[in-house]
Write a structure and sequence with these properties.
about 325 residues, alpha/beta, six-stranded parallel beta sheet, 12 helices, about 45% helix, elongated, disordered C terminus
Length: about 325
């Protein structure tokens, strides 16, 4: 048996760390198999040596996050637990300063590698499942570079591929039909700057949010260019997009190669580019995984279910519950 002690001091910090009705600590105890209790501003962890070491590292990390963010959510604890148990660590990559004094920080080791790759390379490919921050962090980097006067223009691009739905049945003109495809990019921008500033930049073409087809024939200098949902580009579209890069520009290409909406016989331009451009200097690729998902905890389990199939014990448990549900009589 081993024991370790962490100084917390304030009751507010202890409450944030433990959570309502100790829900955060229960999750840590059950996952790592340790005993955790607090007294006189100190948290004591007891258990097997390796488990105590993991729990202590986790508690110190969560305590720092709670002080920084003003509290903890259950998803923060779940994600940190996954990182500890799967051997990854919180990134040391520096945060991004956007407008209004806001700082955007990487929340996982994978996200930190992603930001470092963008800072160090002119072209970065990022592949990963939904919820890993591929688009959000790229937009944050673009806005941060604009604020620091490293670029003069931001161009956000998406292919307008029909993901099981038909554009022809959507109401309105062509722009109205395309807008739903661009909405995630607008949403990310709105979190980085005030609405009036965003509108002014768009009116002045300092920021463009456009479908991929609108990129043909252009050369973009001193620009930060982001291609989102890149798995839905063809090989020729990807070549067209990548060759738009002008002097002083940076490109980030993000996508999820498990969610290709192209016709079955069409090869994804993202998959092709990852293979074709491997080994070229100034180009980097980053792969994010389920441990980098920063949306709701259930997103990790949904991704797992689609990649590896349903959990059998969950199915049997649910079936057992259904059998025990009494008739309402109504």
């Amino acid at each position: 048996m081993s024991e370790a002690t962490i100084s917390i001091i304030s009751s507010e910090a202890l409450l944030a760390l433990f959570g309502a009705r100790d829900k955060h600590m229960r999750a840590i105890r059950e996952t790592l198999g340790v005993s955790i209790h607090a007294r006189d501003g100190r948290v004591t962890v007891e258990g097997e040596s390796e488990a105590v070491g993991r729990a202590t590292e986790l508690l110190e990390r969560l305590n720092s996050q709670a002080r920084r963010d003003g509290g903890l959510e259950a998803d923060d604890v779940t994600r940190a637990l996954a990182e500890i148990t799967e051997g990854s660590a919180v990134s040391s990559a520096r945060p991004i300063e956007v407008y209004n004094g806001r700082m955007v920080r990487p929340r996982t080791a994978g996200q930190g590698r992603y930001l470092d790759a963008i800072r160090e390379n002119n072209l970065v490919f990022c592949i990963g499942p939904a919820g890993t921050g591929k688009t959000y962090l790229a937009v944050a980097m673009a806005v941060g570079d604009m604020k620091a006067d490293r670029i003069r223009k931001i161009v956000l691009v998406r292919p307008a591929v029909e993901a099981g739905e038909s554009l022809g049945f959507l109401p309105g003109d062509l722009q109205a039909k395309i807008n739903p495809y661009l909405r995630p990019l607008f949403d990310a921008l709105r979190e980085m700057m005030e609405h009036d500033m965003m509108r002014r930049y768009m009116e002045e073409d300092v920021i463009e949010v456009i479908p991929l087809a609108y990129m043909r024939g252009r050369t973009l200098n001193d620009a930060f260019i982001i291609l989102d949902e890149a798995q839905n580009t063809t090989i020729s579209q990807m070549k067209m997009f990548l060759t738009r890069m002008g002097a002083g520009s940076k490109i980030v290409v993000s996508g999820d190669t498990t969610q290709v909406d192209l016709p079955r016989e069409t090869r994804s331009g993202l998959t092709d580019a990852l293979e074709r451009l491997r080994g070229i200097g100034g180009i980097s690729s980053v792969r994010l995984t389920r441990t980098d998902i920063v949306r709701h905890r259930l997103v990790q389990e949904i991704v797992d279910a689609y990649e590896h199939g349903p959990k059998k014990h969950s199915e049997s448990k649910d079936a057992g519950r259904q059998k025990r549900v009494p008739r309402s009589g109504r």
